[in-house]
Write a structure and sequence with these properties.
The protein is α+β, with helices and mostly antiparallel strands. It has two domains: 3-196 and 309-392, Aminopeptidase (3-Layer(aba) Sandwich); 199-306, Alpha-Beta Plaits (2-Layer Sandwich), CATH 3.30.70.360. Helix content is 35%, strand content 25%. The chain has helices at 3-10, 14-25, 34-48, 125-144, 167-174, 223-235, 273-294, 313-328, 343-349, 376-392, and strands at 54-58, 64-66, 72-74, 80-85, 92-98, 113-116, 119-121, 150-156, 179-182, 192-196, 199-207, 211-212, 242-251, 257-258, 261-270, 297-306, 335-338, 354-355, 362-363, 371-373. The strands form six sheets. Strands 1-4-8-5-9-18 form a six-stranded mixed beta sheet, sandwiched between helices. Strands 6-7-20-19 form a four-stranded antiparallel beta sheet, covered by helices on one side. The longest helix has 22 residues, at 273-294. It is elongated, with a radius of gyration of 23 Å. The two termini are 19 Å apart. GO terms for molecular function: hydrolase activity. Residues 196-293 form the Peptidase M20 dimerisation domain. It comes from Sphingomonas corticis.
């Protein structure tokens, strides 16, 4: 490593990273808990204000969802943090993370406990309040060394539910960037996510006709049966490069009434753009056939909100840079493909190379067993520091 890199790494404050992480984990910021998300946004704004540049809390873009009764209505989100530093710099980076967690205000998992001296069990500890803390610490160290790299930071409030109200902000921030780093957690052994599949979520409303189940059932049009037929048709579309998961049917009522309403929820996981086209064709065909066969009306809501993320030449160069930085720090870096998705999918779709698991090492995320490996805060902050400094020096050119 260069003397500048070593000096920047030595500036990292492990105690400060842990203290921030514990404080932020104590704030419930489940995506739909708007007061908690607002409190978290305020904490982040105060913390990231230590960096130069223009910091603002951005209002969410409109987003909607289909309720169990089939109505499509607007859903509220919290504000997103955006920081722009040296927008005219010749080399600019994008750093992203999310302030929301999957734990609502009434979830039983609300407090932290130490599993052992190096392992913290807490809501959002790995995913990703530890990642946000080490991202900030790495930027503070880079700034203290006098680096002139430009960067934008986006910390959104809705990543866990699809980034619907922050997608435009992320796309705008990605423009013109040499590379992007996203602070999703790495695996416990430090392995990074490489290629990712995409995802699409659909809510499909089926409207039939009510009738008495004993007196005149043939005059009814059973929406539950039609939704079940639709689920089976869509499930049959799965195959190489396309996973399909019919996940839920809402609807129905008393046993003596032919149900006239149902909502089918389906998730698709396409490996590439071709799989998305196959999925769309399968949806269109299934909807048309089931509507005709069951004499029901069908309305489809949703779409493919996370494009697949392949490892192209630009991403491969960035991964190699991160691997070399890790080697110089004594951190073996490997990566592997995953079926999970994140904002890295959307950033890659903008043509920007991204490594999207630069956060802390941890595991059991999205469960009450979520844990953070605390020494990894300093390890991964050092990895970010060296990576950013090398990108700033043109290592990707």
């Amino acid at each position: 490593m260069s003397s500048n890199e070593r000096a920047a790494v030595e500036r990292l404050d492990a105690a400060a990273m842990l203290a921030r992480t514990e404080r932020w984990c104590a704030i419930n910021s489940g995506t739909r808990h708007l007061s908690g998300v607002g409190a978290m946004a305020g904490e982040l704004a105060d913390a990231f204000a230590a960096l130069p540049g223009e910091l603002r809390l951005v209002e969410p873009e409109p987003a909607d969802a289909m309720a169990a009764d089939g109505r499509v209505a607007a859903i509220a989100h919290g504000r997103h943090l955006h920081l722009s530093v040296r927008p005219d710099a010749p080399v600019r980076l994008l750093l992203t993370g999310h302030m929301d967690t999957v734990y609502p205000a009434d979830h039983p998992f609300q407090s932290a406990r130490w599993i052992d001296a190096d392992t913290l069990n807490a809501p959002g500890a790995a995913d990703m309040k530890g990642g946000l803390s080490l991202m900030l610490e790495a930027l503070l160290a880079v700034e203290a060394g006098g680096s002139h790299v430009g960067y934008e930071v986006v910390v959104n409030s809705d990543e866990e539910t699809g980034s619907f109200s922050s997608a435009a902000l992320l796309a705008a921030a990605a423009r013109g960037k040499a590379a992007a780093l996203t602070y999703e957690p790495a695996l416990p052994d430090g392995t990074l996510a490489g290629a990712r599949g995409g995802t699409g979520n659909f809510s499909i409303r089926v409207t039939g006709r009510a009738a008495h189940a004993g007196r005149n059932p043939d005059e009814g049009r059973n929406a539950i049966v039609a939704a079940a037929a639709l689920a089976l048709r869509l499930n049959a579309a799965k195959g190489a490069g396309l996973a399909v998961n019919p996940a839920r049917i809402d609807g129905g009522g008393p046993n003596n009434v032919v149900p006239d309403h149902a909502v089918l929820r389906v998730n698709f996981r396409p490996a590439d753009a071709g799989a998305i086209e196959r999925a769309r064709a399968a949806i269109d065909a299934a909807v048309a056939d089931v509507a005709a066969a069951h004499d029901v009306a069908v309305h489809v809501h949703g779409g493919f909100n996370r494009p697949p993320k392949p490892i192209d030449a630009g991403a491969a160069r960035l991964f190699d840079l991160v691997k070399a930085a890790g080697a110089d720090l004594g951190q073996p870096i490997a990566w592997r493909a995953t079926g999970g998705v994140c904002d890295g999918n959307n950033i890659a779709a903008c043509g920007v190379p991204v490594v999207d698991t630069m956060g802390a090492r941890g595991g059991a995320i999205h469960s009450a067993d979520e844990f953070l490996i605390v020494p990894s805060l300093a390890e991964r902050a050092a990895l970010s520091v060296v990576t950013m400094l090398r990108v700033a020096q043109g290592a990707l050119s």
